[in-house]
Amino acid sequence: MEDNTTSTTTVEVTLSTSSTLEKDEWSDKVNNHSVSRSDLNSVIMDYLVREGFKEAALSFQKETGIQSGLDDSLMESQIQIRSAIETGEVQKAVETLNDLDLVILDTNPDLFFHLQLQQLLEYIRQGNVDEALAYAQSELSARGEENSKFLEELESALALLAYDDPIKSPFAYLLQHSQRLKVVSELNSAILSNQGKEEVSRLSVLMKLVLWAQSNLEKKGANFPKLTSICSSTLTHPQ
Amino acid sequence: MASVEGGGEMEVTTNEAKRLSYLYPQVDEKETYLPRQWSSKDKYSYIGLSQNNLRVHYKGSGKNHKDAAAVRSNHPIPTGCGVYYYEVKVISKGKDGHIGIGMSASGVSLNKLPGWEKSSYGYHADDGCVFSSSGTGQQFGPTFTTGDVVGCGFNLVDRSIFFTKNGIKLGTAVSDVPANLQLYPTVGLQTPGEIVEGNFGEDQFAFNFEALLTEMKYKTRLQIQELPVAEGEGVWQANLHKLVLGYLVHHGYTSTAVALAADTGQQLEESQESMTNRQKIQSLMMCGRVSQAVSMVNRLHPGLFDSDQELLFRVLCHQFIETIAGYDTLPGRGAEEGRENGEVEDESMETESNDVVTPINLDKDPGAVEQLLLFGRELQSLYNQISKKSHQSGSHQLQTLLQDVFSLLAYADPHSSPVAYLLEPSQREPVTAALNSAILKNNKPPLEFALGQASQCLKLMTENGLGAAAFATIEELLKPTTPHNQTV
């Protein structure tokens, strides 16, 4: 696993045995750290419920005996909104959202803008240039003026139109599935915060804890094996 | 508290320890001590101590500032505190009330009030000035005298020092304490009759220090929560989906995994059947039916135990334990028979096992004891085989396990014996996890590996003088936050 990463992981002949030992010791300790299963399961349940994965949450309740505590009608709305965004039907998502809470978009200007921007991106994805431009002019340009951050995002989106094949442009990331997931996550946060619940999942905070601790150590100039990919458990060892 | 009975003092000490570990839960006093009293060694000769080294009085001639005398606490402030705080009550201002309260590093002259020398900081009673490693003070707060309580706090996150008077925070006095400088609570006196008394956290403070700690925790959590991710929020979310799926698959939560994979458009890398089987093995282990789990592993993963005898040893030790606890039975006593070839079906698993496992009764069944001993001998010979092969320190652990397991036999009531912990259901978790990992040939799901990394990094932060680690613990972030009423 370590061989195909960058050169920093290569163990050189000159490396003293003691630091090799230290390296193994660190990995061992990481591997031997244990967290109680029930605590972890409750973090997982929290994640499934808040992200609106109803089927999974109900199955997990059966498999672990942990109460999901899910609010059925809220979750149904979350599911509809998620699937609308993931299939590019932004307008449908906005309607469901308004049914749920009429003022949510008024009180979350960022969210509202990102939904509008997503609509624009869906027009661009469909290759519907006229519609995209008309929508940008009528709905989005005024919003770009009110906020320089919005303007920047709007410009990146419109820049896609400058390329014959937007997928090969530097802004192609805007057309990837992850862009839709980002909007879904923002929507879920707003919905949950409106319901008086934590905005961010405990799982996300726990995973960011790793990044936070590592960046603190790097700023301090400490030498340590860094987790460079959380998803593949890749540790990159210092030279 | 002068106690008549011997027990009284003990109690005080425990309460004290409780309060300190409540204030500083991340400080492990096996590794770093907390300041608890004034040091009887690290003090100037003009300083006298009394009342368990908490009270300080001046006993010099006190003619001028050359007669100043200071004392440090018995231990330095550990980084793991996050924020450290102590208070001093002025019992008497003596002749002139030249009293300095603050912090200093080890080795700094004690013939000076804190603050005058490099690496020392102090708030002075007579003029209300703060001295920060300098002979010249800066106007800071009110003066203080007999009856006043002055507090001094060291924030190890931003390395600042603040003071309080009679429970009110006066603000930050020093904001540039050098990194890695280790500080001790320090008081200095200068004229006859001056008496002060330290409170290192054993008694309630005048200042609401707990509220400050709560605020630090909240701020740190917010900082972590809002940390921008390099790959962007969208990719981050997708990665979280992956981590959750990886966790579900690893631990065999099959139907949840299938549902989530469908919802997030991810592929499952393992067949449902294989996941379900692992789930069954795990739940057998978790309810103590080790022998059934073992025969299922042997059937589905032949050779697994041959290639990992250490694991087999741990699993069999567990079977021994569960037999004594009455959840399992020994080889050849029924549980496995008639099952060897049969598939373990969902429904049959429950009913069958309830019928088959009869708790062993060591008193009334001498045959059972004999069989246990026989089984124990097998364990012993397995251990001998393993220890011959490996020269690692790991075999020492196995030996301890074997001894503990055997000693269960020595007690009439194992549940109230010194090794009763072995019978706790929570003991099933590690061995079950190890067995599952071996089947998967995969140590830990990435989610848990990341938590292990976080734990190591937090420890390293503390070792490197980064106090913020005290306010970002995995244990706390795992728990749901109590809803707070703050609205932005």
TrEMBL record, chain A:
<dbReference type="InterPro" id="IPR050618">
    <property type="entry name" value="Ubq-SigPath_Reg"/>
</dbReference>
<dbReference type="InterPro" id="IPR006594">
    <property type="entry name" value="LisH"/>
</dbReference>
<dbReference type="InterPro" id="IPR013144">
    <property type="entry name" value="CRA_dom"/>
</dbReference>
<dbReference type="InterPro" id="IPR006595">
    <property type="entry name" value="CTLH_C"/>
</dbReference>
<dbReference type="InterPro" id="IPR024964">
    <property type="entry name" value="CTLH/CRA"/>
</dbReference>
<dbReference type="Pfam" id="PF10607">
    <property type="entry name" value="CTLH"/>
</dbReference>
<protein>
    <recommendedName>
        <fullName>CTLH domain-containing protein</fullName>
    </recommendedName>
</protein>
<feature type="domain" description="CTLH">
    <location>
        <begin position="80"/>
        <end position="131"/>
    </location>
</feature>
<dbReference type="Pfam" id="PF08513">
    <property type="entry name" value="LisH"/>
</dbReference>
Automatic annotation (TrEMBL), chain B:
<dbReference type="InterPro" id="IPR006595">
    <property type="entry name" value="CTLH_C"/>
</dbReference>
<protein>
    <recommendedName>
        <fullName>B30.2/SPRY domain-containing protein</fullName>
    </recommendedName>
</protein>
<dbReference type="InterPro" id="IPR035782">
    <property type="entry name" value="SPRY_RanBP9/10"/>
</dbReference>
<feature type="compositionally biased region" description="Acidic residues">
    <location>
        <begin position="343"/>
        <end position="353"/>
    </location>
</feature>
<feature type="domain" description="CTLH">
    <location>
        <begin position="274"/>
        <end position="331"/>
    </location>
</feature>
<dbReference type="InterPro" id="IPR043136">
    <property type="entry name" value="B30.2/SPRY_sf"/>
</dbReference>
<dbReference type="InterPro" id="IPR013320">
    <property type="entry name" value="ConA-like_dom_sf"/>
</dbReference>
<dbReference type="InterPro" id="IPR013144">
    <property type="entry name" value="CRA_dom"/>
</dbReference>
<dbReference type="InterPro" id="IPR003877">
    <property type="entry name" value="SPRY_dom"/>
</dbReference>
<dbReference type="InterPro" id="IPR006594">
    <property type="entry name" value="LisH"/>
</dbReference>
<dbReference type="Pfam" id="PF00622">
    <property type="entry name" value="SPRY"/>
</dbReference>
<dbReference type="InterPro" id="IPR024964">
    <property type="entry name" value="CTLH/CRA"/>
</dbReference>
<dbReference type="InterPro" id="IPR001870">
    <property type="entry name" value="B30.2/SPRY"/>
</dbReference>
<feature type="domain" description="B30.2/SPRY">
    <location>
        <begin position="16"/>
        <end position="205"/>
    </location>
</feature>
<feature type="region of interest" description="Disordered">
    <location>
        <begin position="331"/>
        <end position="361"/>
    </location>
</feature>
<dbReference type="Pfam" id="PF10607">
    <property type="entry name" value="CTLH"/>
</dbReference>
<dbReference type="InterPro" id="IPR050618">
    <property type="entry name" value="Ubq-SigPath_Reg"/>
</dbReference>
<comment type="similarity">
    <text>Belongs to the RANBP9/10 family.</text>
</comment>
